[in-house]
């Protein structure tokens, strides 16, 4: 597991999906309950992959929107 992803997840507010997954990962358990649903991961590696996917999704959304600047001029085109 990437330590950056784990640090990010542990820094999330308590009760969020990322924090719950991180707590399970650091506690060595593969069963996670969130929003009334329980998920049993096959291994800690699989749980870590889920955490990495969540991290990537959260961070790609944070990078948007992109801004593009354009400049136009009427001079010199005759």
TrEMBL record:
NCBIfam families for the chain: phage_HTJ (NF047331)
Protein name: Uncharacterized protein
Organism: Falsiroseomonas selenitidurans
């Amino acid at each position: 597991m990437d330590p950056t992803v784990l640090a990010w997840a542990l820094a999330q507010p308590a009760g969020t999906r990322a924090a719950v997954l991180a707590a399970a990962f650091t506690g060595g358990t593969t069963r996670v309950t969130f929003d009334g649903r329980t998920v049993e991961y096959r291994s800690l590696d699989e749980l870590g992959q889920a955490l990495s996917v969540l991290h990537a999704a959260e961070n790609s959304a944070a990078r948007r929107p992109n801004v593009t600047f354009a400049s136009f001029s009427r001079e010199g085109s005759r």
